């Protein structure tokens, strides 16, 4: 059995642990406030304020002072500009995300092909083969810039589309090699010309706004000027009842409704009961008329 420690030794060990002799406690990470999308909240507030100002201007604003009205008009214009900028930014982000993968893979394929052609060009000594490789290398380099600098806000047209015939005749060659001498989209020629002007010209093409045709503008104006469609009172709850009340009565006393009793001849339960009561009352009247000039005369 082991010996017990003395009282002084036990106190000494406790003091050492108290002053950092033991294990150090893990330092707590500082608390960070969770990031909130402030721009989305501000945009919602701006839209709400813009709708309020539009409703104000749609009413009789003759009581508003001229200087105050001018200030509110400027505020509304600023809000509309901010809303349009936010919508354009979102549309740009959506378009970039939509075609990101196809652009990325086509750029990688064209880059790989360009490296292979450069390697062959360094190894060859034949002038004709060298000229052919230079022409192919130029096409591959333009393909790289096409995948990078194609306008973000326009639908991307693939350089290497996959067809059913190509799937059947696939011989193991890379897609960039098979499509090296195939037809290119019109934007390819534009990018080939802008490469001579430098990277700034290519970046302007990349960020350009899509062109709006005159037909699209005319269609947009017509849609804005289109009058609102009024609700058909005959389809409303009270309108339908009023129309039924105006319909002419038949011999049985039921309303002749188009599409129900007038054309198909099928009556609902209420109309059948009403018709039966009318027929019974009519038969009773005829019976009383026939008995009127009988025994008591």
From TrEMBL:
Compartments, record wording: Nucleus, Nucleolus
Skewed-composition ranges (Basic and acidic residues): 232-252, 273-285
Claim: rRNA processing is one of the keywords in the record: yes
Keywords assigned by UniProt, alphabetized: Coiled coil, Nucleus, rRNA processing
Low complexity bias locations: 9-18
Record's compositionally biased regions (Basic residues): 21-33
Ranges for region Disordered: 1-37, 167-297
A GO-annotated cellular component: preribosome, small subunit precursor
Gene Ontology biological-process entries: maturation of SSU-rRNA from tricistronic rRNA transcript (SSU-rRNA, 5.8S rRNA, LSU-rRNA)
Family, similarity comment: Belongs to the EFG1 family.
Function according to Swiss-Prot or TrEMBL: Involved in rRNA processing.
PANTHER family the record matches: RRNA-PROCESSING PROTEIN EFG1
Descriptive protein name: rRNA-processing protein EFG1
């Amino acid at each position: 059995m082991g010996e017990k420690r003395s009282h002084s030794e036990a106190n000494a060990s406790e003091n050492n642990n108290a002053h950092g002799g033991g294990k150090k406690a893990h330092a707590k990470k500082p608390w960070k406030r969770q990031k909130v999308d402030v721009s989305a909240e501000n945009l919602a507030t701006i839209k709400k304020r813009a709708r309020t100002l539009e409703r104000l201007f749609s009413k009789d604003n003759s009581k508003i002072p001229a200087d105050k009205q001018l200030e509110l008009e400027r505020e509304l214009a600023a809000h509309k500009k901010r809303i349009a900028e936010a919508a354009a930014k979102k549309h740009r982000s959506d378009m970039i995300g939509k075609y990101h993968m196809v652009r990325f893979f086509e750029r990688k394929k064209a880059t790989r092909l360009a490296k292979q052609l450069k390697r062959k060009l360094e190894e060859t000594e034949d002038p004709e083969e060298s000229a052919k490789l230079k022409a192919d290398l130029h096409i591959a380099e333009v393909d790289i810039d096409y995948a990078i600098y194609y306008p973000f806000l326009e639908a991307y047209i693939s350089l290497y589309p996959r067809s059913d015939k190509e799937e059947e005749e696939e011989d193991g060659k890379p897609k960039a090699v098979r499509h090296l001498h195939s037809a290119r989209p019109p934007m390819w020629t534009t990018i080939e010309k802008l490469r001579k002007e430098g990277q700034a010209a290519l970046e302007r093409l990349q960020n350009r706004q899509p062109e709006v045709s005159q037909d699209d503008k005319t269609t947009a104006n017509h849609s804005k000027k289109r009058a609102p469609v009024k609700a058909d009172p005959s389809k409303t709850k009270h309108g339908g009842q009023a129309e039924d009340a105006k319909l002419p009565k038949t011999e049985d006393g039921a309303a002749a409704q188009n599409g129900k009793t007038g054309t198909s001849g099928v009556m609902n339960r209420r109309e059948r009961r009403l018709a039966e009561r009318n027929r019974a009352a009519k038969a009773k009247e005829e019976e009383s008329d026939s008995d009127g000039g009988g025994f008591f005369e």
